[in-house]
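Quick one, T. Sequence first:
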Amino acid sequence: MKKLLLLSANPKDTTQLRVDEEVREIREGLRRSRQREDFVIETALAVRYRDIRRTILDHEPNIVHFSGHGEGKEGLIFEDETGNSKFIEAEALANLFELFADSIECVVLNACYSDVQAKAIAQHIPYVIGMDKAIGDKAAIEFAVGFYDGLGAGKSVEFAYKLGRNSIEIAGIPERLTPQLLSNPDVIASQKKTEKDIPIQTKPSMQGSTIYGFAPDSTGSNVVSGQNVQGHTIIGTQNNYGVPSSTPFSGNAEALELWTEKLTAYRREEAISSDPEKKFQLKQLIKECQEKIEELGG
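Structure tokens:
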């Protein structure tokens, strides 16, 4: 499941933008998309500078989208307590996003001259999109709709970005080159290394020992150590004292939790992968997990 956080700010001392329309169009596009059940959309309007961290803490998004004004090196414009402009500089934003780098995969800054902030944030986040010049309302909305149409169809960030640019072009607006995608290969590799490991690592036990791997058996009810389950080799489990154990968990609740964790990991990896063959394999694994979760009453 992907969480998309839509942030917007249009202070009363700035030119009025059609941010409400942008949010509505993004919502509508994802609502009709093929993978609409894979997205949860959260919205925060008239965002003050303090609200940025609060909304991220509250919703723990995978994708953060900002609609509003930008002034290059001066910063992105949010609101202060009175509803007037509050500039947030690139370094401050980058340091904030660094704190959430383990969960945020993509940041979209749909604001004029936001490439300055995008470059700073891209030090910590796999994919960041910014604008290298002023962008009009219509172009900004067209890009956003095309981009999320792509993600909603299960496409990669790179594909969705190209689709967003093409949406501007098809609309007859001469601004398709304004959006710029920045990707950080080191961060992408780091996230993939963490997320693609199968079997999935569970939470530490109360004694601090780690369970190295797990997978439900063919009934969906047990965790078995040292055998191959549906194509995945189980590295092993540990008991509360850190000793390898073959004693299985029992009951649907435990099995449901395990399958749900697997599903989350597969979906995250599938969303950031650009390899068609790998994406196909992950889709099959996702389908398998969904079917098993349904059998277990999830």
